[in-house]
Design goal:
- The complex is a heterodimer of chains A (about 110) and B (about 110).
- In chain A, a hairpin with a 6-residue loop joins β4 and β5.
- Helices cover about 0% and strands about 50% of the residues of chain A.
- Chain A is mainly beta and about 110 residues long.
- Chain B is mainly beta.
- Helix content of chain B is about 0%, strand content about 50%.
- Chain B is built from no helices and eleven strands.
- The chains are: A mainly beta (about 110), B mainly beta (about 110).
- Chains A and B meet through β4, β5, β9 and β10 of A and β4, β5, β9 and β10 of B.
Chain lengths: ~110, ~110
């Protein structure tokens, strides 16, 4: 079975508010984590990644937090915009290098204008 | 645009038939991965190729097979198709030694 899961299947936020999407993973040996955004009818789009030797990584309007103690990953989106509406997947890489990712089921983010 | 291309974009076929999905990785990427995504589900890993050789196998049915050619493009062959094979099929590629995978736009397969 999957070792990565999501706490909330759907999330609705007001435009301009911050969004937080959560993800739990079960494999403590995972050393690389990644967030993807998937819009309707499109392929997953890379957002941000983080390695297990880091707790936080920031991108443009997005921040990923990693809590290895409780095996929890979160994606924060600042000033959420209508264009952020999509399904967000977290994924983990159990082995280093070119190996398959294990994906969670996804959270649907809906931005209310 | 990720740089990964997939054809065809849509495919409609009947049960029992065989189809071939094609993927061209980003320039220079040696690894190609195939994933299946059913309705409202996450992505399930099927198979990985690295520089022409099979590297890892996931939940791929025996009716499915894949290969990677010398020019690094890959094909996923689905045979004896069943209704339950209807799904989105994605290809991803990654650089040598890097975990980040970049996905193509997918092929939507509908088996009637």
């Amino acid at each position: 079975g999957e070792s990565v899961g999501l706490h909330l299947p759907t999330l609705s936020v007001q435009e301009g508010d911050n969004s937080i999407i959560n993800c739990a993973y079960s494999n403590s040996a995972s050393d690389y984590f990644i967030w993807y955004k998937q819009e309707s009818g499109k392929g997953p789009q890379f957002i941000i990644d983080i390695r297990s030797n880091m707790d936080k990584r920031q991108g443009q309007r997005v921040t990923v937090l990693l809590n290895k103690t409780v095996k929890h990953l979160s994606l924060q989106i600042a000033a959420t915009q209508p264009g952020d509406s999509a399904v967000y997947f977290c994924a983990e890489n159990i082995n280093s290098g070119n190996t398959p990712l294990v994906f969670g089921k996804g959270t649907r983010l809906s931005v209310i204008a | 645009d990720s740089g990964v291309t997939q054809t065809p974009k849509h495919l409609i076929t009947a049960t029992g038939q065989r189809v071939t999905l094609r993927c061209s990785p980003r320039s220079g990427d040696l690894s190609v991965y195939w994933y299946q995504q059913s309705l409202d589900q996450g992505l399930q890993f099927l198979i990985q190729y690295y520089n022409g050789e099979e590297r890892a196998k996931g939940n791929i049915l025996e009716r499915f097979s894949a290969q990677q050619f010398p020019d690094l493009h890959s094909e996923l062959n689905l045979s004896s198709l069943e209704l339950g094979d209807s799904a989105l099929y994605f290809c991803a590629s990654s650089e040598q030694g890097r975990e980040t995978q970049y996905f193509g736009p997918g092929t939507r397969l509908l088996v009637l």
